[in-house]
Amino acid sequence: MHHFLCVIMYGMTMGSVTIALNIFFLSTFARPVQTAGGKGLHYGVIANIIPDGSANKSKITTRGTLSCAQACFTKSMEGSCTIASYNKNTKECTLSTSTVRDLMHNEDYDEVTLFPQSGCDVKDLPTVDNGVYEKTPFMPGFYSIRCAEGYDISLASKLNSFICDVTKTWIYNNVTCIPEAELKFTEGRSFVATFMGNYEIPNKTFHLYIVTSDYDVNSTFQYSTVTVNIPNTSFQKTYTIAKYLEIELSNVNISDAIYISTTDPVTVFTMNKNQYSTGGMLVFPLISLGKTYVIATTPYDDLESSLVIIPIDIEAKFTLSFPDNTTENVYITYGKSYELKRSGLSGTYIESDEPIAVFAGEKCANLPDAGNYSCDHIIEQMPPLDALDHEYIIAPTKPRSYFGLLVVATSQDTTHVSINSETDTPIYTSYLKRHDTFYQTFDNAQHLSVKATEPVLVVQYGVSISVDNMSQGDASMFVVPGINHFTSKYRFVVPDGYNTNKVILIYNITNGNDPRAGLKLNGNATYLAEMTSIKLNALEDYGVCYLDIEAGVHELENTETFGAVLYGQGRYIEYAWNLGMYMWK
What we know:
585 residues, 2 domains, eight-stranded antiparallel β-sheet
């Protein structure tokens, strides 16, 4: 999620007087920039937003050294925001104009307290296409990029700030302006999903979980409508959704294309559930999909491994290149799906002429190999190649004793992959090319990092219960979010029927930064005392925490971005999926 810096266009008169300030909105992001030598940006937070009872006014109060006007952040880029009055003693601003209605909750506001210097030359900054640099009034040495109409900043996890430091050197991230339609998140209004075979389900009952992206977690007001369309069965139905909606489908066939459209942004999860075999996943919105993919199913050759490909437009032509150097060309039209079962699917490379949705999994998985029986269903939607990262933090799924990790190469060039310990000591290194995979089973005492010279797909498995002989859990699978996939807010459903449900939270804790104090669960401050530190490299450290959570619909948010994975364990059963990803193009 990104925020917008309000740049003041006119001067102000200090004191408790009425003023009129027009404020223009520039994209900026709430993630500290870590630079060589341990430098960083300090953050304050706007303390409160106070409605005054009218439809077009609100007040905000601030903490920190900046004035209210200088610290104004808003969600909207349309129009201007006028500060009607300002009180220097209380640091209260009264905001007017209808744009106040678009203001986000107070925890989404950030006040950037910077101490920039003068003396740098803006000509030394890199050229930016489809955008211009603008100097922030009252803050010498501080610039931001304003993207042209129809464009926005490409990296939601990066800070759009260009700061002249005390050595007269610019501190900045590489920021580009891209078309707004290319911004990639896992919330959206249009999706396509499918269900794959589950060994223990003869009656084909499947679950869709749909969570609205903007709601009061303590209310149940009507929010949106959802339409589910399954062309292969002529099924189409419209539902009303408040906070979330669970849809149980019984008249759907394996690998059917299930199109989901909503009037407002939502997050979608699916679950194929039975007493002893469960598979579920996060579903990506159509706008986040791409044309090229690599596949991860089981880490070993298995005849029951399968993939499903669904077009999102009128038609798609694609080529599958398998690890055994064979290929297959496929043409498919809207509403249809392509299903393939064969051995050795992990590492398969797919290239299409149009965006497609790709799903992969196993009907009867035994992990890490066929010698460890569990026969559990696993499934995940594959992220497109241009959304993959090259750095990942890996956390075990406690209290299980072991977990598996699969790395799938994407590049034709040689990719160096290193799996490192908590202290950044290499445990395994490998050189991979496209179609190559690397798998290893680890004990649950280990927190790891994965680093690669090229983008890679990383998948984590819960192993068969026969591996650790525990009464809880079994085989499961989820796509691991990379450190650049993190966002600051997640809304999700925790399914019922499991003895243990936990969320893995991954934070950037570089230079002693501790974001745990900013965590809120369903609007309530939640502090997690235990945290394991992981050194990613010489300059960056990450922390891993675990949150026990009950069945139901939830919202997790923080003042800084973080990674989040949900998993649940019961007797001979386990599910796992990541809760959301920022997916760039």
